[in-house]
């Protein structure tokens, strides 16, 4: 009886906090809504300035450019959720792209075979990153900075200054990127399918939940018996696989591959992930957000080209968007944190 | 001594953190040239008082005077400037800087071109250590020095600032007996120079060896200040435990079954050694002792987080090897950690997702978590433990402390354990929620669970436990049955003063 009496004021205070809680959840979702709104604003403004921009073929072009980055961003999100990062993805894409192209050119391996080998190579490279981070306990930023150079070095070693051109590649392979399903380019469909599958699994699978738990509270994850090491290793393997898939599609999309293919891609991918609201300190964010982030950045890039603005503006605006996205995040979070503290949550 | 007026005087100091009244109306005077011991149970308010003197916390009420002038501490820097030096249990030094740099950090001597005057720096630092009568190379980095040596660096720093008041927070906690002797020599030397020393400790032997006067805090209140010669250790202990007017939910009678968990000679080097005890189904075993006595550490080993160096563990009579929390869970042992936020909950997750976290793989079918089953499970345990929420989809971060603790317990109940290790289950929850947690624990024992209850609160252990094992500095100091245990006897064993 006395228990109830003591607790009733707490429960009324609780309902006050609940409204706040709902607002907080809304803010989290707002991130994705926010990106979409900025995206629409950009589209509207650019369309007024340059009506050419607003066409199905241009949007298709943008999405085609996004598709490979988006696939890599899916893998990167998986890694970033666990409080890690994979800087080697650009090199993995490059190495897999060249190796696949080389196999198709030299060894007349079937298209399906070459694709399978490319994906497996991505898995292997990701697994090596995973071993360094999860088993050898090298900080991810250092380990994958190392493999960024090592994998690119291997790429140069195999390529030896040569390049694979479209004429060397089988028609079936090149056809993947140019084909369409019901009028929609296959690449875009592939990227969308991968992103949706990853989004669903991260949200609903046991392993996905555990990945969020690891990033959100490593100590608690350890205490509930989550196999942290194995899951972080797994996240790097998934990231390698995604980069591998992107690498396999790279040659098909661009026709020619040299040893420098996809260099610098890692920064574009991380930018997309961060703009998309994935917390760089792990534990929160979604694949959908990351993909939207990639779409936003690509749309702006396309718009600036159509408006004939210089490369400088392109880079400066990309940078400004990253700072803006992260800054607003921090500000909003800090604001709600203060309110929560004031309302007496411990 | 009463004729000299105190150099530092606290009057009516109060401090509150949320629902917890950490200090209430505390008076304390420090005389120049005395070693003044401050003792009390865990949670009595000693640390809060130290932090107020260090300028880390500001009191809600009351006033402080230093040399008769009103003292307002705006921050740690102000305290230091005014001559109050605080030496924390774990020294806060810069491991990669040298000893001399650490002593003079922030005020390094400069040469003519505004660079650091290294020779002057090292010379002054050396002189300080000579004054202390200690041989210490001042040009080596602090990293690698023992805790005892690091404390000396802090003391040298205090001296270089010409501190008149030195506050030492459990300075002997991680020192060997030889190092304690050396520290005491230095303390006596500082005392003869007229420094006022507040010595916060709970080891009776040490207090009675070094202190001139003694003050006791209990539940945030000042109980007594007396000359050490006017007291016996047993008196001091009686003042520390006192009598409390708390309504407790005593354990309901339960059938005590077979041995669920037995520990023989369990040892983890440097943390605890030769721990042996057993706990039966339906029984609550209390693990009492001071913070750092090794209670949490034993639980962590039993749950597979840390490894034992020696000893054996038997679950239901069978030898087992627990290498990870997963092993422990498989054997039916679960651990509800001390710190809900650090180790217990994923605050971003909903109640349901938290409850299902340990068994999320088992709840999955073809990779995907069965949401319906998850919700049913979370709902069932939330109801059983009476978690107050808007529903199991509510985020854990929105719950009150007591309800969060219930979610942590629910999480483990979902794994259907046979042995429940509870570490300070009611710390930081309000009295109403506390009684509820007690009721839950009692109910679980009634269902045949074997429970190990770690608690610093003597009344909680006395009310709940069938048997009580008391740890002192990593060893089992005493074991009491429910009927022959008392606050005094437990506290005496916990402070290493067995003949109370």
Please, could you describe this protein's structure?
- The complex is a heterodimer of chains A (346) and B (500).
- Chain A folds into 2 domains: 59-308, ABC transporter involved in vitamin B12 uptake, BtuC, CATH 1.10.3470; 312-346.
- Chain A contains 13 helices and 2 strands; from the N terminus they run ααααααββααααααα.
- In chain A, a hairpin with a 2-residue loop joins strand 1 and strand 2.
- In chain A, strands 1-2 form a two-stranded antiparallel ribbon.
- The two termini of chain A are 26 Å apart.
- In chain A, helix 4 (111-135) runs antiparallel to helix 10, helix 6 packs across helix 10 and helix 7 (186-204) packs across helix 8 (206-216).
- With 346 residues, chain A is mainly α.
- The longest helix of chain B has 16 residues, at 177-192.
- In chain B, the strands form 5 sheets. Chain B has a 6-stranded mixed sheet with strand order 6-7-8-3-9-10, sandwiched between helices.
- Chain B has 2 domains: 8-93 and 142-241, 3-Layer(aba) Sandwich (Rossmann fold), CATH 3.40.50.300; 259-494, 3-Layer(aba) Sandwich (Rossmann fold), CATH 3.40.50.
- Helix content of chain B is 33%, strand content 25%.
- Chain B is built from 17 helices and 22 strands.
- With 500 residues, chain B is of the alpha/beta class.
- Chain B has helices at residues 46-53, 76-81, 99-103, 118-132, 147-160, 177-192, 204-210, 233-241, 295-302, 325-330, 340-344, 351-356, 371-384, 401-413, 431-446, 458-464, 487-494, and strands at 8-17, 20-30, 35-39, 61-66, 69-71, 84-87, 165-169, 196-200, 213-218, 221-227, 259-268, 272-280, 284-289, 310-315, 318-320, 333-336, 364-365, 368-369, 419-423, 450-454, 467-472, 475-481.
- In chain B, strand 7 (165-169), helix 6 and strand 8 (196-200) form a beta-alpha-beta unit.
- At the A-B interface, helix 1, helix 8 and helix 9 of A face helix 10, helix 11, strand 18 and helix 15 of B.
